[in-house]
Write a structure and sequence with these properties.
By secondary structure, this protein is an alpha+beta fold. The protein has a single domain, classed as Glutaredoxin (3-Layer(aba) Sandwich), CATH 3.40.30. Strands 1-8-7-4-5-6-2-3 form an 8-stranded mixed sheet, with helices on both faces. Strand 2 and strand 3 form a beta hairpin. The protein starts with 20 loop residues before the first helix and ends in a 9-residue tail after the last helix.
């Protein structure tokens, strides 16, 4: 009988884990997460930078920052002709927004006129800003008023009142009608002005808007 011979087993090493490879993957994942967080917090960073760093000493902000910012809801609004428009379609422009009922009596119409004039005051930056009237009830809107607003490039939409309450909050004890809201190009409501602006107040609000537009010039361009 043949005796089994001793044999040396051969082992082939194809590859070994690269030292630090797992740590590199974790680091990459963390950097991606940090990038997402920075993108989401950009409006807050811009607003705080503008109002606490860029602003010259002695100039207090007139507008009130909404903290935290309120993102636009992914719901459908309704144009006055009955067609639908997703609210997120309003993104990519700065927005000046007034909320009021469809009846829009004298005080409401005066505030819409002020809103129109306020946008015109922005001069060369006007094309970076749209102005909106968001109707928060089912009351009919005067056809003549609608025609005038559309002629002045206003957007008029009917939006559920609860959606507007979440997106465009009023200060406690006040109504949405008491404010003009500023929405950034990412759809975040981030500031509000008093809706009754005299000449002095309008100049202060204009200064605030100019600071915001100047601070965002690197990542925001006119038009959608």
């Amino acid at each position: 009988m043949n005796q089994p011979s001793d044999e040396v087993l051969g082992l082939s090493v194809h590859s070994l884990p690269t030292p630090g490879g797992a740590a590199g993957s974790v680091l990459t994942g963390r950097l991606k997460l940090l990038g997402i967080l920075l993108a989401c917090s950009l409006p807050i960073v811009v607003a705080c930078f503008v109002f606490y760093v860029v602003r010259p000493h002695g100039q207090a902000s007139f507008g009130e920052l909404i903290m935290p910012v309120r993102p636009v809801s992914d719901v459908l609004a309704t144009r006055l002709d009955g067609t639908s428009l997703p609210l997120p379609a309003l993104k990519a422009q700065w927005l000046l927004v007034k909320v009021d009922g469809g009846a829009c009596v004298q005080d409401c119409q005066k505030q819409l006129t002020v809103l129109r004039q306020f946008r015109l005051m922005l001069g060369k930056d006007m094309d970076r800003v749209d102005w909106l009237w968001l109707v928060n009830d089912q009351a009919p809107v005067d056809a003549q008023l609608t025609t005038l607003l559309q002629h002045d490039n206003a957007t008029v939409l009917r939006v559920d009142a609860q959606v507007l309450h979440t997106w465009l909050p009023a200060r406690e004890g006040q109504r949405q009608q008491d404010f003009i809201y500023v929405v950034d190009p990412m759809g975040n409501a981030m500031m509000r002005f008093p809706s009754r602006l005299d000449s002095a107040a309008a100049a202060k609000a204009k200064r605030d808007m100019e600071h915001l537009l100047r601070a965002s010039i690197a990542w925001d361009a006119p038009g959608r």
